[in-house]
Write a structure and sequence with these properties.
The protein has 378 residues and is of the alpha/beta class. It has helices at residues 4-17, 54-64, 90-97, 116-122, 134-138, 141-149, 179-189, 199-205, 236-239, 252-255, 261-269, 288-299, 310-318, and strands at 31-36, 39-45, 73-78, 101-106, 127-129, 153-160, 165-167, 194-198, 221-225, 246-251, 273-277, 303-306, 324-329, 340-341, 358-365, 368-374. The relative contact order is 0.12.
Amino acid sequence: MITEHDTRFLDLAARHALRAFGRVEPNPLVGAAIVRDGRLIGLGHHRRFGGAHAERDALEDAARRGEDVRGATMYTTLEPCASPGKQPPCTEAILKSGIARVVFARQDPHPSKGGGAAWLREGGVPCDQSNASALATGISAPFVKRTVTGLPWVIAKWAQTIDGRVATRTGESKWISGDVARRRVHRLRSRVDAVLTGIGTVIADDPMLTPRGVPIIRTAARVVADTDLDIPPDAAMVKTAHEVPTLVACDGELAGSAIMARRRADLERSGVKVVPVLPADNGRGIDLRELLKTLLEEHDIATVLVEAGPGLLGTLFEQDLVDEAVVYIAPMLLGDELAKSAAVGRIAESLTSAKRLNLWRVKSVGGDVELVYRAPRV
């Protein structure tokens, strides 16, 4: 049975866990709260990759407060791990601590780390899964997806007018969103493993796609989907490839052809890593699913932020490759039917053809509205 405490303290644990976004991946974001008689006596989260897990961090916090955790309830966003890795198993620490009950939001799908709930129950500690907090369940979704599918977590970002336009008919888009929203985008760039864009955006805007004016949590690689290896040698990303990791994904056969040998060699001398990818089944561009799989398997890229034009975004949505959409709505309306939409390339003759997303979070940001959506499968 879901209780008021389940919702309150799982939410609290999840908000605490979000502080480590960008610091723990590819590990999951995890938070934990220890409660007795409705009173918080310990709070922790997984702070960095390889560091103490949330449950142990919460136990240590309770000790610093001088609190006795025996008989208390622990709320955690992910099932406590059952086997050692970089850290000893959390189930072991929980059993030794005297915690009387554990409530967790999501089961751990990892083949070697899962099963902590059963271990706790065998040790005499009741352990229940609760869906009381959508936030607590949702923050583990990127880790669950990577574990189950072998694909990174994909976040699409764009700014639009009230009537859903991302640029004027002439392509003008600077700036639809305000300063606060743009700063949040830079912050997001500083926490992901890669920023993906298309060759059309590179040619049109010559972007750097690097975070500015915010603390750098991790340096994101720039990834360009460029089927025919058309990226200009004087593009800003090429000229800075020795400073910021830059990958250009192109048709695998083309990449290995003699006619492209010189162009590829020039790019590689500039510091660009050329990533050969199979062509899409429909013959239009590269296989984006294969690209995402390659990014995770060969380049340890666990989170991908997409900042691209409507063509690439439309294809990603069509192939169900977008897990999360961060949309900034500005208080302006164009009313021009030829202004640019966020995504194109799909055929949707009825509303049943629409790609539906679930609203996950809403926030007012300096006059704009930030909407975060997630795919229903997440």
